[in-house]
Design a protein that fits this description.
alpha/beta; eight-stranded mixed beta sheet; globular
């Protein structure tokens, strides 16, 4: 099924009029100024040296600490509570691999993940020999987390609870009140929180800063926050991400020691990017430029959808942050011959073939909405392409009978 979709995409992606409505690579629409990047790298090359550190180069960690502490409310992070990795995926893997090895039983430990959710997480959990379980995000409540769903899925084997805010693919943000309630649940069940906030600078309606004094209420709670420069500065090729650790000092110290041993084995984050990181953060105008671009793209998507959807053939919730949103048909497609996944696959393949537009089916994100079709798109695209792509999508949707 996946092969048919991606083979079709590969076949038509070279067409001049091809439009990828699910592109998440910000570097394709925003190029970090090469003159600035060249000057930063040249400065490093001219005084090149190698100082490996099991947590990451100190001046890079100091830069991250300074940046994070400007955003934190009632909480401070010092450089020794930061680990630098080559990617957010590697950050997850480092945490999973390190902190699940202490399991004394032969049963797999469990990770609670959001649904809908990003497909990569299932692979990450399998790679670390963990079992994925899922909690709901309620579409009828603007994708708010269902706390009962979290509690119902907690077992004695639950080790981690993953929060993604801003969320991929819902475009939602976890509120201060919701975060506090989740912290209480995690503390009571001795579960480690992992917060993925790679889109944290790209918010449109809500602030996502949380009050970290919550750790005074729950002294046994430990939380990891993950971020990186792939989205923040539109520099996915320079490969740098980081882990921030919050919670009780005694518990943190124990975890830091374990992570340090494992991170020291690979040291996969390259020295060049770590050394130029202070330069990137000193000139934050690039982040502001990316956000301005995304705001304009979001406005185009909103306006275009309102114009095309006057007969109300789809439902959607505009993202409050991040770059994703889910579209669902109002019409139900239920047959005895095909599953909903097969119909979504057929839709995506035929849309790509006839309209040269590519979009992800909802089942990629384990999202199902009764008998309705669902699709995930990204606003990270040229405004004209977004408008044209949506026009073609609606044109095809009106003729598709499944």
């Amino acid at each position: 099924m996946l092969n048919d979709i991606y083979e079709t995409r590969q076949k038509f992606s070279k067409s001049e009029d091809f439009i990828d409505l699910i592109s998440t690579d910000l570097s394709k629409i925003y190029s970090y100024p090469s003159d600035k990047l060249n000057s930063y790298i040249k400065k490093y090359i001219d005084s090149r040296f190698y100082e490996p550190d099991s947590k990451g180069i100190l001046k890079a960690r100091e830069t991250i600490s300074k940046y994070t502490n400007k955003k934190n409310i009632n909480g401070k992070l010092n450089p020794d509570e930061i680990f630098i990795t080559a990617s957010t995926s590697e950050s997850y893997n480092l945490i999973f691999q390190t902190l699940s090895k202490s399991n004394d039983t032969k049963e797999k430990l469990e990770v609670l993940l959001p649904n809908p959710g990003y497909p990569l997480f299932e692979q990450l959990t399998k790679y670390s020999n963990l079992e994925a379980k899922y909690y709901r995000q309620e579409e009828s409540k603007n994708w708010e987390i269902d706390l009962n769903s979290i509690q119902d899925n907690i077992t004695c084997k639950t080790k981690f609870l993953v929060l993604i805010s801003p969320n991929n693919p819902t475009g939602s943000v976890i509120s201060k009140e919701m975060f506090k309630k989740i912290c209480q649940i995690a503390s009571q069940s001795n579960i480690i929180l992992i917060v993925d906030e790679v889109f944290n600078e790209f918010t449109y309606e809500k602030d996502i800063s949380w009050d970290l004094s919550v750790f005074n209420l729950y002294p046994t709670l430990v939380m990891f926050k993950l971020n990186g420069i792939s989205k923040l500065f539109s520099l996915p090729d320079l490969k740098l991400a980081w882990i921030e650790i919050y919670g009780n000092k005694e518990k943190k110290d124990e975890i830091v020691e374990e992570l340090e041993i494992n991170n020291d084995m690979f040291l996969s984050a390259n020295s060049i990017t770590q050394n130029i990181l202070p330069n990137l953060f000193e000139d934050f105008s690039t982040v502001e430029d990316i956000k301005e671009m995304l705001i304009k793209s979001r406005e185009i998507v909103d306006k275009t959808l309102q114009e095309l959807n006057k007969d109300n053939i789809i439902e959607y919730i505009l993202p409050t942050a991040g770059i994703h949103l889910i579209l669902s048909t109002k019409k139900e497609y239920i047959t005895n011959q095909k599953s909903l996944e097969e119909i979504e696959e057929e839709f995506v393949v035929r849309l790509t073939e006839s309209e040269k537009v590519f979009i992800h089916p909802g089942f990629f994100y384990d999202y199902h909405s009764g008998g309705r079709l669902s699709f995930v798109m990204s606003i990270a695209n040229d405004p004209n392409k977004l408008k044209t792509g949506l026009e073609r999508l609606f044109k095809f949707l009106r003729t598709f009978n499944g």
